[in-house]
Amino acid sequence: MYNPAVTVRRIDVLIRILNGRKTIVTSNLVRAYSSDGKITIGNVSKDITTPKKLEYVPRKYLITKDSELKGLTQSTLRNLRWMMQKDILGQDMFLLGRPGPSRRKVALQYLELTQRELEYVALSRDTTEADLKQRREIQSSTAKYFDQSAVRAAIEGRVLVIEGIEKAERNVLPVLNNLLENREMHLEDGRFLIPASRYDKLLQEHGADEVSKWRLVRVDENFRVIALGLPVPKYTGQPLDPPLRSRFQARDVATIGFGVRITINVRTELK
To answer: Where is the ATPase dynein-related AAA domain (predicted)?
Structure first.
């Protein structure tokens, strides 16, 4: 019986003999392809839907040339595969790593690959609840509330990318925790966000008119949160509370060093 692993080892030995040096041939390559509205990375597949607003989808984070995606390392492909698994399971993600653009780049690459709309918020010590929920502004001599990134992402089913979560103050964390755990949030204008399953059940039992009187807003089932942060206490910041930390599925995104060999290109098959 043909065994690919044995063949790879034989080729590895032959290369070492010919070159007189150690050469490592990777046998467990992660491959990815896309066709007919479906993206597949390794053994994980996900259907791609057309976004409502194409301008919200990240662009130019994947290098495309002659219908091929170039420059994706095996490390990046494994990170994208892990994110796709969590997205299919409906889980929120927490990408950890050293300071730099690596975590943000992986998140934006995944959104571009899956054609997901993005809402972005950067947390700091000055971030308040209003920056996540609603801001009160004057428009035409009237004070109105305007939804912010977290609320827009929840209602429209977008992906909320939160960067610098270790910088969040204690009074902001309960807002994030309730949104992550229960998909619930009380808004300043009197509306209340509830998860899609509960909203659909109430709509079926009481009707649209009654639900609208309660000022309930449906959180889309495709709403996801991707948090980007630094490991604390190695770096300066606030350690996450255990309740908030347990809401995420975490992954360490290692920084790709100089001289890393690109072992595979992702080919997009267009029909």
So the answer is: 92-248
